[in-house]
Amino acid sequence: MKKPSGKILIKYTAASLFCAGLTWLYLALRDFSSAPELERCRMLSDAFLIPGLLMVLFGLLVVLSGKGALDGISYALRRAVGMLLPGSRLREERFFDYVERKREKPLRGYGFLFVVGGIFLLVSIFYYIRFYQLYLPGK
């Protein structure tokens, strides 16, 4: 089996720390420590759902961007910055040339967003199921 490189570990660690920070922030803004077990399960489900969804949806945005769905917006923003800032008109290119240049270097290495987001979503689903086990014990 191949040993993971340093870049991969940094990506996964940074994404996990970001999600863990959002989870902690969600729980810190609520009275988690003194809540009953039923409310704790609900809070934990919500706390893991938010960063998990953010990561997965951000990954989808990166996929769409890589497929060219946002080329027009990025070209227009680049063009606007070039017109507003003096001295930044280094390269005037047409939209077709811009798209061709972007296609030469496709976006890679963003699968970690889906993996980390999926793990947080699975933890959220676990606490969601646990919440309903406590909420509806006889059914």
Outline the secondary-structure elements:
Layout: H1 6-28, H2 37-67, H3 71-84, H4 95-104, H5 111-135
Helix pairs in contact: 1-2, 1-5, 2-5
Quaternary state of the chains: single chain
* Shape assignment: elongated
Percent in strands: under 5%
The unreliable regions are none
Tell me the structural class.
mainly alpha
Termini gap = 46 Å
| Number of distinct helices | 5
Please provide a written account of the structure.
With 139 residues, this protein is an all-alpha fold. Helices cover 74% and strands 0% of the residues. It contains five helices and no strands. The protein has helices at residues 6-28, 37-67, 71-84, 95-104, 111-135. The longest helix has 31 residues, at 37-67. The termini are far apart. 12% of the residues are buried.
List descriptors:
elongated, 139 residues, mainly alpha, single chain, 5 helices, 0% strand
Offer a concise description of the structure.
The protein is mainly alpha-helical and 139 residues long.
